[in-house]
Amino acid sequence: MAEILITGGAGFIGSTLIRKLSEKGYRIAIIDDLSTGSEDNLPDNVRLHRVDIRSAVVDRIFEIENPKYLFHLAAQLNVRRSVADPMFDADVNVMGTLNMLQAAQKAGVEKIIFTSTGGAIYGEQEYFPADENHPTNPDSPYGITKLAAEKYIQFFFKTHGMKYCIFRLANVYGPRQSTIGEAGVVAAFFDRFLSGEEAIINGNGRQTRDFVFVGDVADALIKGMDYPNCNIFNIGTTIETTILQLFRMIRDISDYEQKEIFGPPKAGEQIRSVITHKKAEKELGWLPHTSLMEGLQKTYQYFKSNKRKTTQTMS
Known about the structure:
- This protein is of the alpha/beta class.
- The protein has a domain at 4-176 and 212-237 and 275-289: NAD(P)-binding Rossmann-like Domain (Rossmann fold, 3-Layer(aba) Sandwich).
- It has helices at 12-23, 58-65, 79-84, 86-107, 141-160, 185-194, 214-226, 243-254, 278-284, 292-314; strands spanning 4-7, 28-31, 46-49, 69-72, 111-117, 163-169, 171-173, 200-202, 208-209, 211-213, 231-235, 241-242, 261-263.
- The strands form 4 sheets. The protein has a 7-stranded parallel sheet with strand order 3-2-1-4-5-6-11, with helices on both faces.
- Strand 1, helix 1 and strand 2 (28-31) form a beta-alpha-beta unit.
- Helix 4 (86-107) packs parallel to helix 5.
- The model is unreliable at 310-315 (pLDDT under 50).
């Protein structure tokens, strides 16, 4: 039996969360189909159920583990894929979430902690930074399905009494972020520079994002366990950074010579995105402690070390 069940636990945020929860002594099990996560990210003291969140098997997993808390992190995260294939996006993010909610409700889970999006859910912002009361006008199917998942979670509380904390995350970056597929821009830039390849800036580079370090995000999620009420929280830094500024910071950290190269903008991507964490600070006592430069340095050291290990293995 596990006190905590985490979907997507072998992924970037999930594996960081697991390490912090393990240090606190919790018994943990995860559900992950390893389509984007890696078993290498997992410590030895967690049980892995290699299952898709849409599978009927999850009912049995909840019976076996009987968790008190469900951290639901698994999702289709690729904004561009959601634009190209909205049916698949909805199947994973809406039907997969519903499958988990029904299984959790049957098993008597006390609380679900859900990772939503603090950028795509608001769409092009009407004011800056966005708070939790900002109108939700998502421009992509990904944002639409995350909003739908939030509404289903609220329905399960009203109907079945299953408590929740919903965290709308800014652009999360840090060690173990995937460089495969539509990687986060930080991981993509570091991967390109460390491979000696050109990094392309989509659009004019003046689009902005709010970059929050993965360790700080995991701390916020853990605070949701003891929070006595149901609520929605933005988790970001309230600092707006352009992609061009980010590119130059990562280039300088990597000590790599490359001029800016611009490509076409991508469909479904926002022009400006920045959120305020004032509510999380007031209600949870949470603050982002890692500056962007500090977080990028930590991320660089991880990718540099990982790249070296990969090269040694291949040679």
